[in-house]
Automatic annotation (TrEMBL):
It holds the Pfam family Sec23_trunk. One of its GO terms (molecular function) is zinc ion binding. Residues 663-763 form the Sec23/Sec24 helical domain. Residues 1-77 are annotated as: Disordered. Residues 568-651 form the Sec23/Sec24 beta-sandwich domain. This is VWFA domain-containing protein. GO terms for biological process: COPII-coated vesicle cargo loading; intracellular protein transport. One of its GO terms (cellular component) is Golgi membrane. It is found in: Cytoplasm; Golgi apparatus membrane. Belongs to the SEC23/SEC24 family. SEC24 subfamily. Residues 250-284 form the Zinc finger Sec23/Sec24-type domain.
């Protein structure tokens, strides 16, 4: 097929194959978009996989023990779910054109019309005027769009009336969807989800999919309903010397040490069979007597009834031997060097520290804090409650740092708030008034050593959290850096400074995590100074060209939010899986992407780990495969726990089943993490080619082995229909931009760090920001909460086309008004042609105010009492819940006014052609299609046997899984 023919197909694309349909909403020019046709045969029920808890062959599942029908159907009709009472007449009746409990078919979906076939070669006939290049999406369980903006609304509408049931529902919701979930002895997918719920039986079959086998685990994800995780507590009759109860060890497999979970098979005689290693063990009478056999092969206990539980564990599980766990300790490091003082960032940090300490005092009352300021010296502050005013101790020795005092270094904020406020006032006075004593140097490396020494000394090596600000390149003390600019001589993005590699390793082994707030525009060699952040799973925030009027509220909000999301520390993570699979790699820099269990010094709601598996042997088709993540940690109050998270999948030898139940979110994360792991010298054109080739591999395999459509069409798996767009956006990210002049710039390293810091929801919004228009006509119930908990945002089916704005310049209307959410910030886009009455209702401003004079006090949306303002505040609350952020700052985004407009819009408009000539989305699909056609013409794909499912011919891979080789 020639590129001209494909381009002709795209250019003549039509969203309406049956003729014009009148609409009651205003339309504006949208970019050409490809659409798909569902006019293809679905597999029979017998072709579909069976899963734990699904009816199959009239037997009982080992996971749930539920009685199963003899029909063999793996489908169980979802029960109706209503978070609140509602009028059924609001929703379409069965058989209506709205699919999926009220989800309408997207524009361009016409399952009954004939599909135009793009000519297959140069000699083919000329396309007709209504021809369109139409990707076909197959195997759909429910009809959602291939356009990400539309897909998000459609799936959210689907889960208004439906509760996700972990046994019955096979397809994991999008990470950008809010949904109620019922734990049916498998965990909420927000805690852990695997990349394939129909697992290939061997590495040969896996190689035919070109997809990774792995999982994504977020142990402390925010769920719905917001119920606490069940706590399992087993005590003895003894009382310890400190008066506390003596805890017993949780029930675990004697061989592989798996924690008791719903997959264990337990008989009436007390014999238990581990679901991970299949080894039997005998439960003691005490263990067996605490539960009741439920009649289906399991004990009626919390840990055998829920997919996620917390075990309270005895002293043997403590991080430090013979030492009781402590509440979390914080050290605040404040950069008071001259450059930080001149741009106002040091005062903003002081205010952020004040707000953070107030939050700790109110919500983490057992935690303690310390404050240290630094420039060319270190300033320690004594915080004992008995003092009337702050006492400052100065240390000038930067090569051999020491603590000038011990008592009063740490304190509980509630006990010493008067002294703490006086300390912060004294630091502010130095910044504002003592100009002659200020120096342009910062001893950042020495300050980190001092904070580490303070935490290790006071806590006895139990760790803590360092919260640090930095404005300029460190030039004094340990870790001083001499490179004043990014000269592009170093092509890699790794830290090659010995001091920062060592201090990062020491902090991690001491259970100390670093959050770093960078407030300077100059080059600071972020690859080096932020190495401890990456190694210790901390947070990095960057405010280029810091301005107090714009960035102060962002910095304060970020620091308080990051502290509010902390749930524990001293974390050790272990993933176990059934025999036949084993962990090949944890995608974490702290352990060099190896299979060693990672240490996570401080845990937050955002902490997310991706894991890649490998085959040890061929698996048996139809067998249940179990996965358990055990997170040993200390909560912020000093209680030692193990969080046990359990899920399962089923082995299959049917390639159609395997593609049908792929989890795109886990696949996307693993692909991106593997690219980052193998960046090397950052030859980004070559890396982009490898990404494209990987997508071509996946889509060629699907097209060749499964699809029955004509070879002239681009065929995408239903489960992976938006993967090309997400990967294209990744190719256009700040990390992947040309590096001829700059290879280690602040923006590139900060973008690189985001992929290790972001959970699945933030990553999805980062790669494809969500745009919501306010100038469109909305119904009264649109953008209002459907449930009484105010978590499920509803829209009417007819409004979805209006609210689905693609991330392309052509989708933005001159004079429009939009919310744009990138996962961390909400931007309010408008220009001088936007209706001022709309802005008055939305922001409560004077309509006569010039566009350039409009401001937002504190970066928050004011409450105006108008309908559109209420809808906007609902959107903010909705995004806040999805991304687990207490507050999300609102930033104005106006063309020709805001200096950050150009760089921000470059990140947002990911469907457009980029500055470095990476193609737009439509042409990207055309190029993928052409390469797929070339592979098919050459018969260049991995073949599988229809009888056994084993791989044949080209592309054979050994049992040791090789996913992406860069």
């Amino acid at each position: 097929m020639s590129e001209g023919d494909l381009a002709a197909g795209i250019s003549s694309l039509s969203l309406d194959q049956t003729g014009p349909v009148p609409h009651n909403f205003k339309k504006h020019r949208r970019p050409n978009r490809a659409f798909h046709n569902l006019n293809s045969a679905n597999p029979t029920l017998n072709d579909l996989p069976s899963f734990p808890g699904m009816p199959v062959h009239g037997r009982t599942s080992s996971w749930t023990g539920a009685s199963q029908s003899a029909s063999g159907s793996p489908f169980i009709q979802p029960q109706s779910f209503t978070p609140r009472q509602f009028d059924a007449s609001q929703f379409p009746a069965p058989g209506s054109p709205y699919v999926g409990n009220g989800v309408p078919p997207s524009p361009g979906f016409n399952t009954a019309s004939e599909q135009f076939m793009v000519p297959a070669g140069p000699g083919a006939s000329t396309p007709t005027p209504n021809a369109s290049f139409s990707p076909v999406y197959e195997e759909s369980n429910y009809n959602t769009s291939h356009i990400i903006a539309t897909q998000r609304w459609e799936e959210q509408l689907l889960y208004l009336q439906k509760m996700y049931q972990t046994i019955k529902d096979l397809n994991v919701p999008l990470p950008t969807t809010e949904f109620y979930c019922k734990d049916q002895s498998k965990c909420d997918p927000r805690f852990m989800s695997v990349s394939m719920y129909a697992l290939p039986e061997d590495s040969h079959l896996r190689s035919a999919t070109k997809l990774p086998i792995g999982l994504t685990v977020q142990p402390f994800a925010q769920t719905l309903p917001e119920e606490p995780v069940p706590i399992v507590k087993s005590i003895t009759n003894m009382v310890l010397n400190d008066g506390s109860e003596d805890l017993k060890e949780p029930i675990r497999c004697m061989r592989c040490r798996t924690y008791l979970n719903p997959g264990f098979q337990i008989g009436y005689d007390g014999n238990a069979c581990c679901n991970i290693c299949n080894v039997k063990m005998k439960l003691s009478m005490e263990e067996f007597g605490n539960g009741v056999i439920d009649g289906q092969g399991g004990l009626d206990r919390l840990e055998t009834s829920f997919g996620t539980v917390d075990f309270l564990v005895p002293r043997q599980y403590n991080a430090t031997k013979d030492a009781a766990p402590l509440p979390l300790h914080y050290v605040f490091l404040i950069d008071t060097s001259l450059l930080a003082n001149e741009n106002g960032s040091s005062l903003a940090v002081v205010e952020a520290v004040r707000n953070s300490i107030e939050y700790i005092s109110e919500n983490q009352e057992n935690c303690k804090i310390a404050i240290i300021a630094y420039d060319n010296k270190l300033k320690f502050y004594k915080l004992i409650p008995e003092l009337e005013s702050a006492q400052e101790y100065i240390v000038n020795d930067l090569q051999d740092v020491f603590l000038p005092f011990y008592n009063g270094l740490f304190t509980k904020p509630k006990d010493s708030m008067k002294v703490i406020n006086d300390t912060l006032r004294k630091i502010s006075d130095f910044i504002v008034a003592d100009k002659y004593s200020q120096v342009p140097h910062a001893c950042y490396g020495t300050a980190l050593e001092a904070a580490k020494l303070a935490l290790s000394t006071v806590t006895g090596g139990q760790g803590g959290k360092i919260v640090c600000s930095l404005n300029s390149l460190p030039t004094l003390g340990k870790g001083n850096l001499q490179l004043k600019k990014d000269d592009a001589l170093k092509k890699h993005v790794k830290c090659d400074n010995e001091f920062y590699n060592q201090i990062a390793d020491q902090l991690m082994r001491s259970y100390i995590s670093l959050d770093l707030y960078v407030t300077g525009a100059g080059f600071i060699d972020m690859a080096s100074v932020a190495k401890p952040v990456e190694k210790t799973s901390g947070m990095l925030r960057y405010y280029p060209h810091f301005r107090s009027d714009h960035d102060e509220f962002l910095l304060v909000n970020d620091m308080v939010s990051n502290i509010a999301k902390i749930v524990g520390y001293q974390g050790l993570l272990k993933v176990r899986c059934s025999a036949g699979l084993s962990v090949e790699s944890y995608y974490m820099d702290a352990i060099d992407y190896s299979d060693r269990e990672p240490m996570i010094p401080v845990l937050t709601k955002d902490t997310t780990v991706d894991v890649l598996f490998k085959y040890d042997e061929k698996l048996k088709a139809g067998k249940d495969m179990y996965y358990q993540t055990a997170m040993l940690y200390t909560d912020i109050h000093g209680v030692r726990k193990v969080r046990s998270i359990n899920t399962s999948s089923r082995v299959s030898k049917n390639i159609r089943e395997i593609f049908k139940y792929v989890n795109q979110t886990a696949v996307l994360r693993i692909m991106i993490k593997d690219i980052i792991r193998t960046l090397g010298n950052c030859d980004f054109p070559a890396i982009r080619k490898v990404i494209d080739d990987k997508l071509v591999d996946i889509l060629t395999q699907y097209r060749a082995l499964i699809s029955g459509n004509s070879s002239s069409q681009l065929v995408l798996p239903d489960a992976l229909r938006t993967l090309p767009m997400y990967m294209l956006s990744f190719e256009k990210s700040a990390l992947m931009r040309p590096n001829m002049q700059s290879t280690r710039g602040n923006e590139r390293i900060f973008d690189l760090m985001k992929y290790s810091m972001f959970d699945s929801a933030k990553l999805s919004f980062k790669l494809y920001p969500q745009i919501i228009p306010f100038h469109e006509m909305l119904e009264e119930t649109d953008l209002m909460f459907y449930d009484t908990n105010e978590r499920l945002l509803q829209v009417s089916p007819t409004t979805i086309p209006n609210l689905s704005v693609r991330d392309g310049h052509a989708s933005l209307m001159n004079g429009g008004c939009y919310f744009v959410f990138d996962g961390t910030h909400i931007y309010l886009w408008f220009n001088e042609n936007t209706n001022k009455m709309l802005l008055q209702d939305l922001l409560g401003i004077d309509p006569s105010l010039p566009t350039a004079s409009i401001t937002l006090a504190g970066g928050y949306l004011p409450e105006c009492g108008t309908s559109i303002n209420e809808k906007a505040r609902n959107i903010v609350k909705y995004w806040s819940h999805i991304t687990a952020q207490p507050t999300i700052p609102l930033i104005l985004l106006r063309p020709n006014i805001d200096q950050y407009y150009s760089s921000t819009m470059t990140n947002i408009l990911c469907e457009d052609k980029s500055m470095n000539l990476i193609e737009d989305y439509d042409n990207y699909l055309i190029n993928l299609h052409r390469k797929i056609q070339e592979r098919l013409a050459k018969d260049d794909f991995v073949k599988v046997s229809t009888s056994s499912g084993s791989s044949l011919g080209k592309g054979h891979e050994q049992f040791h899984q090789k996913f992406v080789q860069f």
